[in-house]
Amino acid sequence: MQFRYLHQVRARNPLVHCITNIVVTQFSANGLLAIGASPFMSTMAEEAEDIQHFAQALLINIGTINRSDVEAMLVAGKAANRVGIPVVLDPVGAGVTEYRRNITRRLLAEIRFSAIRGNAGEMAYLAGVEWQSKGVDAGRGNGDPSEIVHKVARQYHCIGALSGATDFISDGEKIVKIKNGSPLFPQVTGSGCLLGAIIAAYLGVAAANDRFNAVLEACAAYAVAGECAAQGLDRRSGDFALELINQLALLEDSTICARAEVEYV
Amino acid sequence: MQFRYLHQVRARNPLVHCITNIVVTQFSANGLLAIGASPFMSTMAEEAEDIQHFAQALLINIGTINRSDVEAMLVAGKAANRVGIPVVLDPVGAGVTEYRRNITRRLLAEIRFSAIRGNAGEMAYLAGVEWQSKGVDAGRGNGDPSEIVHKVARQYHCIGALSGATDFISDGEKIVKIKNGSPLFPQVTGSGCLLGAIIAAYLGVAAANDRFNAVLEACAAYAVAGECAAQGLDRRSGDFALELINQLALLEDSTICARAEVEYV
Amino acid sequence: MQFRYLHQVRARNPLVHCITNIVVTQFSANGLLAIGASPFMSTMAEEAEDIQHFAQALLINIGTINRSDVEAMLVAGKAANRVGIPVVLDPVGAGVTEYRRNITRRLLAEIRFSAIRGNAGEMAYLAGVEWQSKGVDAGRGNGDPSEIVHKVARQYHCIGALSGATDFISDGEKIVKIKNGSPLFPQVTGSGCLLGAIIAAYLGVAAANDRFNAVLEACAAYAVAGECAAQGLDRRSGDFALELINQLALLEDSTICARAEVEYV
To answer: Quick one: which residues bind ATP (chains A, B, C) (predicted)?
Structure first.
């Protein structure tokens, strides 16, 4: 498999507007800088429209959303849709409280998303598949992740990315799985959120008809960077969070090509 | 002394709802993951009641509290009291501004706390003992910390944990001190806040009649992890913050048993 | 050149009230602790006046500003002006949206700033010089940075500090440049914001008639710490963020004296 987008992200330095949660702002911004993108962290509705005119992509992450964040998300999302830049949804803990269910429903009704990234529990909720989520963690369920991601992609007309020990990506037709990664990922808060941001960066340099490949490459690059970062760390999750940023900055196409285990389902 | 709770935290992975300040969200979440708990960071009043139905413990930290945070704290705290899960208060800078004094008073009047963790200045304020706090730092005073923590425990019918170079824990009867730790702790923002979160995780797996031991074990485990983390670091507070997360993830009962210096006062 | 202020910051441990953005709170607080100051992170208007009575300096950073933050900034800034403590402005992304332009204008009209620190794009906007900013990054322009910083200093009657690969500092008469630093600085989110906070700490221990030297020393100390931190790191921006905190904690006057490349323009 050929990887083309990392190079483009670095060459074009896409500005990614992140409306994200208060836990992961710093980690997301540093991760975006490391991969070669330019983060713009703003949750203000007052400037949410303006930003879409110079941003290359928008990320909406509902990890912590107060009332004014929702307003900013709606203004930004609709403006991004008008301008035509890609919008990524990260539905953190989407199904676990009535509040999050309502907000997720509203965002999905009013904004067209180019991609949705979540863990198994969040994607199962969006797909209407039964699942036992645990707060913002993936939890447990019997659903087949490849079916879940396929459903999300079809239902919301977007690229679905279900991330976990194995990642599943679908455009509603094709389904691909990526076996790279590390058990240290879920030990670092915001590691899923950063993947959502990196997907946005990749989409920011991709043509509208090649979004499946862009999301696939983003997930593969991230999983490979994590695999490299985890080497020799045992349970040291502090080191992993730091080394993940280093490896994103050091990542080369040749490393991704050599290590990525991508398979069509 | 026997240590039993670290094992239980890892086995039962308690979900800790943290309504905490914007400075320490990431560090607290990563520290909770490292010790074996599942952090749920949310400051939204709209979902504060819902969360208590699947959380095992609630942490309320007033480090930075806007109006909507106060509302979330009150909704969450009362719901947690109804449901019967433990609630921990971290009264950051409690005495230093009129605004914090008012909020602290209101929280203490409307919510029953299972434990209160603070530095000497914050606990002295709660105990009504004169003290020269310095912002959110402990400051200086002549009060006896064992008397202060004893007073807090009696006055608010909870476990008091006064943390500093030496930690003092009391249930209003017994008083214990823990001599482990490191001078690097106060050099890392949120190191006290993370202890508050870990106390909540420990209480989340403890029986209501064994909370003194759970808080004591949480403090001892944390102080020992810090002691291990600080080895050879001189003044390198950046490394300390990271290594503390690593050591929490690597911590074993045997290490705590071998190193903990716990004494009844 | 003689460096006198690092010693004073460590001896007097100035309390710096930071009203700053949600991306950089933890990094700024840890950096302030490392240099020897005491951070107080609060964005609540309700306590913004109280805090000026025990703070030694105030930092106002507009990286992410919701409506209540603006209120806190105005209350705090005016109170700091009345009390006579120094106030630093960090106009993050000042020119890039209408919302930021309005807030910047209002802050500059209602508060007297002792120092303003920004990147080339932000300072060019304040000076009314044409520049192509890119979100919160410096962007590109043809303006001469020494003229820009000189203009900002004259126009707002303050010390201007334009930071980048080379830093420029001016009091409206003298202009100085500092050639130390590292290309890794812009790869770490909040590295400029932390410099703003450290400038505030230095001003908190300086006499009102020596603010130019205090800002100059703060910038030189920070750039030298970054230079030391970057050694051998290649593109490892994760390591750089951490090592910068370490180097601030380990920094000695002799290191600054030996390495600082300060030149009058």
So the answer is: 117, 163
Four-point Cα dihedral C168, C172, C174, C180, nearest 10: -10
Instruction: Find the mean pLDDT for residues A154-179.
Output: 98
In which band, very low, low, confident or very high, does the pLDDT at C138 lie, cut at 50, 70 and 90? confident
Residue B126 has what pLDDT? 97
Which value, in Å, is the radius of gyration of the alpha carbons in chain C?
A: 17
**Chain A residues in contact with C136 (beta carbon < 8 A):** 39-40
Q: Which helix (H) or strand (E) holds A223?
A: helix A211-230
Binding residues of B for substrate: 41, 190
Q: If you average pLDDT over every residue of chain C, what do you get?
A: 96
The strand ranges marked E within C110-173 are 115-118, 132-134, 137-140, 159-162, 167-170
Domain A5-264, CATH class in plain words:
alpha beta
Count CB atoms within 10 A of the CB of residue B247. 24
DSSP string, C68-116: HHHHHHHHHHHHHHHHT--EEEE-TTTTTSHHHHHHHHHHHHH---SEE
Q: Which residues contact B104 (CB under 8 A, 6 or more apart)?
A: B62, B91, B94, B95, B125, B126
B170, B146 contact by CB (below 8 A): yes
Contact C256, C248 (CB under 8 A): no
Q: What is the pLDDT of residue C183?
A: 98
**Chain A contact for C94, CB < 8 A?**
no
**Chain centre to alpha carbon of residue B236:** 24
Give the number of residues written for chain B.
265
Composition of chain B by helix, strand, coil, percent to 5: 50, 15, 30
B175: β partners: B170
- The answer to whether the beta carbons of residues C193 and C19 sit under 8 Å apart is no
Using the beta-carbon criterion (under 8 Å), do B239 and C244 form an inter-chain contact? no
Q: How far apart are CA C225 and CA C243, in angstroms?
A: 9
- Domain residue ranges of chain C, discontinuous segments joined by +: 5-264
Distance separating alpha carbons of residues C74 and C67, to the nearest angstrom: 11
Per-state percent for chain A, helix, strand, coil, to nearest 5: 50, 15, 30
- CA dist B34 and B120 (Å) reads 27
Q: How far is it, in rounded angstroms, from Cα A78 to Cα B105?
A: 43
DSSP string spanning B142-181?
-S-HHHHHHHHHHHHTSEEEE-SSSEEEESSS-EEEE---
CA distance B54 to B46: 15
Tell me the C-alpha distance between A92 and A119, whole Å. Answer: 8
- Please check whether residue C50 is in contact with residue B95, taking contact to mean a CB–CB distance below 8 angstroms: no
Mean of pLDDT values over C82-88: 98
Report the candidate in C40, C114, C97, C34 with the shortest Cα–Cα distance to residue C72: C40
Q: Taking the CA of residue A116 as centre, how many other CA atoms within 13 Å lie in the half-sphere pointing to its CB?
A: 34
- Cβ contact (<8 Å) for A189 and B26? yes
DSSP string covering A33-90, please? HHHT-EEEE---HHHHHHHHTT-SEEEEE-SS--HHHHHHHHHHHHHHHHHT--EEEE
Contacts of A66 in chain B (CB under 8 A): 43-44, 68
From the CA of A99, how many Å to the nearest CA of chain B? 6
